């Protein structure tokens, strides 16, 4: 295990009815006037909006609203929010929604104290050193942004879907997590969320760092929980226990408690970001296509790690004479799990075209090659992985 520093200051308030605490939590962290950031109408249909605004009123906190955040969050919404914050003297950002809403809120938070373009941070021109406080009322179990140290935004000038520099500065001050808000989600969103959080664990699990037994077991336990809970939540919107397991698993998958002390990969995410930028597909759907293809391509780098994944996560039988058979069975089991959730299996199913491959690779040049911590991915490797996605 490598040396590490882990700091996760977010206060988590979990359970049914806990949105009533939102106003007092904002007060606790110094907020007096909030920007309420959310997406479409789902927060009004599932009751989150009413619960939150009632809590703000009870605490005497005024607020303005920024709605319409898209599933793949865009820079224009962040710019709009930053302008509103500066104009109206807002001192707290409250995200009510899932990862896209939370990431937009984070970008507004660290973009508001800065006099320049918030995209400067994404380009690495300077570090993020300050932010307005951000709070979360989570309504989708998926991205884990409610507990993470990063955010992803698409810059509409060039359609660059990039992650911000990782920093504890932008971790939310609090996250209200009521699984009941996720029970009204369409099955497709539940499935996309489950694949996303599973991928967050895989990006940490497939590592070259030796002697990481504890975090290996944490990763495996979380993946097994997702495999068990996701089909139940997908099939039964009223299965509170399954939705609760997914909600907490999504946070643990991405607050980095499973990733400390070990090299991480993130190749599948980097490739999927290009698919989202090109085809505007749901992130989890794109990962369902990319992640098994990446596994197939890199499996021979550490066949025994993939065999362990197959046995400990999916319960495959170990073929001691030929571990590669077990490793392949694990990848097949992952594809089967995604298929069980009606997730796409091929590039075409997310709107992709084989003839776009070179354009996708060229678009990635802006961010740079190589990427990936498990196996370095250059242009040739990315081309082959995209071919395996077809």
Question: Could you characterize the architecture of this molecule?
Answer:
The structure is a single chain. The chain is α/β, with parallel strands linked by helices. 48% of the residues lie in helices and 10% in strands. The protein contains 15 helices and eight strands. It has a six-stranded parallel sheet, sandwiched between helices. Strand 6 and strand 7 (160-163) form a beta hairpin. The mean pLDDT is 96.
Shape descriptor: globular
User: Strand order within the widest sheet?
Assistant: 1-8-5-4-2-3
Helix and strand run: EHEHHEHEHHEEEEHHHHHHHHH
Distance N to C terminus: 37 Å
* Main sheet attributes: strand count, strand direction, barrel closure: 6 strands, parallel
Per DSSP, the total helix count is 15
How helix-rich are the residues, as a percent range? 40-55%
Please indicate the percent range of residues in DSSP E strands (runs of 2 or more): 5-15%
Low-confidence stretches: none
Number of strands: 8
Concise description?
This protein is of the alpha/beta class. The chain has 15 helices and 8 strands.
Q: Tags for this entry?
A:
alpha/beta, 6-stranded parallel β-sheet, two-stranded antiparallel sheet, 48% helix, 390 residues
Strand and helix map with partners:
Elements: E1 11-14, H1 22-28, E2 33-38, H2 42-45, H3 48-59, E3 62-66, H4 75-88, E4 92-97, H5 99-111, H6 119-122, E5 134-138, E6 152-155, E7 160-163, E8 174-177, H7 187-205, H8 213-235, H9 240-254, H10 267-279, H11 283-298, H12 303-314, H13 323-340, H14 357-364, H15 379-388
Parallel strand pairs: 1-8, 2-3, 2-4, 4-5, 5-8
Antiparallel strand pairs: 6-7
